Amino acid sequence: MTEGMGMAAVIPKVSELVQKASEALLAEYGCEAETAVCAPGRVNIIGGHTDYNEGFVFPMALPLVTVVVGKKTSDGICCIKTLMPSADEPRMVEFQVPTAENPLKPSKPYWANYVKGVIQNFHGPVSGFVAVVNSSVPLGGGLSSSAALEVATYTFLEAITQDPAESLKAKALACQKAEHTFANMPCGIMDQFISTMGKAGNLLFIDCRTLESKCVALDDPDIVILITNSNVRHTLRGSEYPLRRIHCQKAAVMLGMKSLRDAAIEDLEKYKDCMSDTMYRHARHVITEIKRTQDCEVALVNKDYQNFGRMITECHYSLKNDFEVSCPELDELVALAVEVPGVFGSRLTGGGFGGCTITVVKQDSVDAVMSHIKEKYRGTPTFYVCQPSEGARILQL
Question: Whole-angstrom Cα distance, residue 324 to residue 363?
Answer without folding.
Answer: 31
